[in-house]
Amino acid sequence: MIFNRLRTRRPTTAPSGGCPYAHAHTAPHPAPAAADPVPPGPRLPPAPAAGRLPAVPAAGQLPPVPPPFTDPAQAAEFIRQFHREQPAAGAPESRLRAVREEIDRTGSYRHTPAELAYGAKLAWRNAARCIGRLYWRSLVVRDLRHLSAPDDIAAECFEHLRVAGNGGRIRPVVSVFAPDRPGRPAARILNQQLVRYAGHRDGDGPAAGAVVGDPAGAALTARARALGWKCAEDRFEPLPLLLQERPGERPHWYELPDDTTLEVPLSHPEHGWFAELGLRWYAVPAISDMTLEIGGVRYPTAPFNGWYMGTEIGARNLADADRYDMLGTVAERLGLDTSSERTLWRDRALVELNIAVLHSFQEAGVTIADHHTESERFLKHVAQERRLGRPTPADWSWIVPPVSGGLTPVYHRYYDPVDEEQRPAFLAREPW
Ligand code: ARG
What we know:
Mean pLDDT: 89
Radius of gyration: 24 Å
Bound molecules: arginine
Oligomer: single chain
Shape: globular
């Protein structure tokens, strides 16, 4: 539930810019703490002042060495946190030395499976925009770091959807593929989510120029079509998976096998006509365009999912004017007076649409949360973390649901400020 909330109403700590993920991650790394038990790396000569030519190293002086690919300070900070929160792992010192030695030798280091699993869970716990964090410990972490070829990644993304979909009992899952390594960037998934609907401009007829399908999928649809994907031009047509191995290379594309895309046709508990609208939505929201960063190591190919909160579908994907834009149609079928905003026809249509989403998922046996329950769970998480002596940074404007905000307890308070430098984290992926 950490996406799709481009809203202007935000408290002081909002990330800048129009990008929905706008996490800064290009800032300089913090300097190692003075009491760092890790042996220091080779000493570098002082950096030349800006605008001046670097001095020719004097005899006996080391020439300038570029900093290692992976920042040792970030690595050490994570290793310490891991050992602090996982006492069974023992004291951190020997692992800190091994990590530092591996970075000095290779430019980076490899997480142990336990470090990877815990690091991914911490990234979820740190996701300031996510209301569903109570369950951060239950994340299923699929360690697929040995895979970097597009065919293998595609096959395991499909398996991810099956594991996560679990016949309707949605499980939160992350699949972690090979990280960026010195001189070898990892392959990228170009899709925003593993399942998303195509959107394309209608060529002729009365609606010529309007987007059929999901306008949020239009750019990827055009790209997939240029690669040879044949689009049936349906309103709810899952996009193929697009994988790019190197910057500028032609992406590979893969049609989603049928058994990967669990979908729910929408109906309403009281209005029989609702099913005739032909609306549907998929069961597993699996974000695939964010980098998982743990201890200075970047995993740009690490799709992750939770389960849906109804409002994401009913109050945004199907309701937003620049998405499926269904409120006018629903209001008309409800027979509402749309001649004035004051009849609140939009609000009434919106509630019925959200009722239909929750009802249909429940009928289909697919996990979904309502915003009242999920809000309470979130405050339970905040209280639980507080008892453990930890803050829960949260972005109010993303946490408060897009319908009935003031009816939920998350509306009536503020949260610990968001720290853009906090790691581990899921971050907006840098372009190649
Ligand atoms: N809001 C996005 C969507 O509607 C999904 C973001 C992740 N949501 C979640 N419940 N884990 O597709």
